[in-house]
Amino acid sequence: MKTSQTLDVHKLRADFAVFDELVNGRPFAYLDSASSTQKPRQVLDAMREFYEHSYANVHRGVYTLAERATAGYESAREKVRAFVNAPSNREVIFTRSATEALNLVAYAWGLDNLGPGDVVVVTELEHHANFVPWQFIAKRTGAEFAHIPIDDLGELQLDTLDELGSRGNVKVVANNLVSNTLGTINPVEKLADWAHAQGAIMVVDAAQAAPHRPIDVQALGCDFLAVSSHKLCGPSGVGALWGRRELLEEMQPFNLGGEMIRSVALDKTSWNELPYKFEAGTPAIAEAYGFGVAIDYVSAVGLEAIEQHEHELLVQAMELLAEIPGVHVFGPPADRRTGIVSFELDGVHPHDVAQILDWEGVAVRAGHHCTQPLMTRLGVAATSRASFYLYTLPDDVDRLAAGLLKVKGTFGV
Amino acid sequence: MSEFDQLYREVILDHYKNPRGHGVIEGADAHAEGENPLCGDEVTISVRFAEDGETIDEIGFEGRGCAISQAATSMLTEMVKGRKASEVAELPKEELLDEIGIPLTPIRLKCAILGLGVLKVALHRAKGTPLPEEWRGLSEGLEFD
């Protein structure tokens, strides 16, 4: 059995009870981490312990357990801050997800700052979370909704920027640092420079990037960045938005209610300071705590090591798939993408590919991956997608290739 | 038979590779198209009635998509030939699923009933046969023209 050069994957897998599961009598090769990730014991135990010893509502109580809960919640916020190298805790807002984080910016910044004559620029690669909110808010405000197209390798055509800039006042540039469908790594620093030169804000969807490579909002030069807990071994139901303080201070709140106010009266209500202005209601306390523990876990493994490990798997996968007649891989070459491989198999629908792979104990995703505009551009309705993470074995990739040969045999293609 | 063998058992693969009733009926009395935009399964069905204007005499389908969607539609065309429109409009999905013969997860269920939905829409349009309530919920997410 091959071993990874970079990570002791077997040791890491021992942290994940789910890999003891047999699927249809076979060991579980989970190749859908781009969709969501498995959780290590460390995260689950920490959340359980939190509930058993430290749980109370946050920011309110005077009693001991309330202090402990608040400390746990706020320590998670600090972990997120450090994880993305944000300048201040006040700029880190816990949300329900990366999707909610992007909606927050679209509504709370977009509604007050966009109007006719303005242009919102997304890309053809965007996940619906960083496409649909902008499309909706642009329509609501009368701004134009435009996109940067990709080339046949799935990379952004930056030579279209001049034309896009000529359409009006570009106010928003929204982009995913890593494409969840093609794995393309986008030149966010260049886009941010261009955005600022136009007088626009740069909004980055880092849901797919943050778990797989080091992130530094200051180096990226963006104005907003969304991250997701469940994509980096943390619990679902929590994510975070980082935003520049000056922008957040100017913005109206997004969700309103308790916690985000200073004082409430019949005639007038005032908002709480950052970050609480954007955290209405009782938050997902234990989940945020778990998010922090997940950040500790992946940081201890090392983001550079994870990146390198996935790259090895990616090279292996692309070599194996290139040898199978009828398999076509979409997207850039291995040196310009992360560990995500979308492909099609001639003559077999992605659903059928995924079904047969499941019976071999290999989990891949079949569908549009919440990127329908990209599917349209690729000329397909759906692709099959395999994606890797810190717990993926070279053997899992071998089984993907073997599984595809089985699919071909079954369909006689 | 292992479940794998069942799902893609020869009958289904046979229907997928050699679909029955494949093609368009010229001068059809009833016609409809449908798709599942989430995965790209597409089915188009055309029907000609016998002289009584009620009995399905000829039925043709075209489409592309996963093996389940295409095979199920192929099986459907064999099942409904010679039956009356009013009866087919009421055809319960269970009858089709029994024909397919294996348990399906909710996602693949949508694949299997796409053709049935398209046929019911075609009949509804041509003959005013009812679209049952139960059908409306089932077909959520699918698009018909």
Structure description:
The complex is a heterodimer of chains A (413) and B (145). With 413 residues, chain A is α/β, with parallel strands linked by helices. Chain A contains 14 helices and 17 strands. In chain A, the strands form five sheets. In chain A, strands 4-10-9-8-7-5-6 form a seven-stranded mixed beta sheet, with helices on both faces. Chain B has one domain (3-137): Sufe protein. Chain: A, CATH 3.90.1010.10. In chain B, strands 3-2-1-4 form a four-stranded antiparallel beta sheet, covered by helices on one side. In chain B, helix 3 crosses helix 5 and helix 3 crosses helix 6. Chain B is globular and about 45 Å long. The A-B interface holds A 24, 348-352, 355-356, 359, 366-368, 372, 380-382, 410-412 and B 3-4, 7-8, 13, 17, 37-41, 65-68, 107-108, 111.
What distinguishing features does this structure have?
heterodimer, A: 413 residues, alpha/beta, Aspartate Aminotransferase, domain 1, Aspartate Aminotransferase, domain 2, 2 domains, 17 strands, B: 145 residues, alpha+beta, Sufe protein. Chain: A, 4-stranded antiparallel beta sheet
Question: Gist?
Answer:
The complex is a heterodimer of chains A (413) and B (145). Chain A is of the alpha/beta class.
> Termini of chain B, distance in Å?
39 Å
Number of strands of chain B: 4
Identify the overall geometry of chain B: globular
Biggest sheet statistics of chain A: 7 strands, mixed
- Report the portion of residues of chain B in β strands: 15-25%
CATH fold group of the largest domain in chain A: Aspartate Aminotransferase, domain 2
Give the total of beta strands of chain A.
17
* Shape, principal axes of CA atoms of chain A: globular
| CATH C-level name of the largest domain in chain A | Alpha Beta
- What percent strand of chain A? 15-25%
Structural class of chain A: alpha/beta
